[in-house]
Structure formats: C-alpha cells, structure tokens
Amino acid sequence: MDLLRRKVRPELKPPDTLSRYVVTKHAWYKHYKRIFLVTPTAVHTQNPERTLVLTNSYSFVGDSDIESVSLGTDEFEFVITARQDKRGKFKPLKFTCKHRQLLLTDLYQCMAAAAALGRCLVAAKVLG
Q1: pLDDT digits (tens, 9 = 90+) for 55-74
Q2: Residue 104 needs a FRET pair 20 to 30 A away by CA distance; which of 4, 86, 111, 125 works?
Q3: Of 123, 96, 94, which Cα lies nearest the Cα of 108?
C-alpha cells in the first residue's frame, strides 16, 4: 500500500500554459514577486516563494473576470482590471515586468484566438 503513503505533488502549472513571466505585483501596502501564467482561456499568478502555489486566476472567456488591460506609467508597468469572483467588483491590478511587451503579446494573441472561436466577448473591448 505504498500508494496511500506517497505524497501527491500538486500541479505546478496548468497543463495548457503557453508562457510564464516573473512579475512584481503592486498592492497599496507592499510589492511582491509572482509568476504570471498565460493560458488560452485565462491568466494565473503563482507565488514563487511558497512552492509555486496558484494564488489567483482571471478568466477572459465566457463570463470574463478581466474587464480591461492598459499600459502603466513606465515601460514595464501594466494594469489589468479584473475581479476576484463572479459577483465582485472590477479592481485594477498593477504589475511590472521587464518583458511586458512579450507578456501582453501572448495575452492578446490568446484573447484574439478565443474571440475567433466566439468564446471571448471582452476581446473587442481590450484589443480595440
């Protein structure tokens, strides 16, 4: 019965992850590192200091959790306006990343692909 004693390792990333970036999330009280994952249907954040546990997920297909994506005040900053749950208010989430252009390109390409399949209703607003 070794199967019962063996610890099952949690999934470190969603299986359909297309890209990962190290970002800094800026909250009003502190700044902290996160790994930003882009998938064909959502973006996720992981805590790199706690065994890469998923901290948040924001879907952009169906009933979207993301309302908008905008550039910040400098060349590394971007803001995603999103909600934590389906009943919550949309709030701005500020991030910085040295590879902002690549991150946003990956995100926009996933949104455009989902929109082409009729699954991303927010794409027209975000992509213009």
Answers
A1: 899 999 988 999 999 999 99
A2: 86
A3: 123
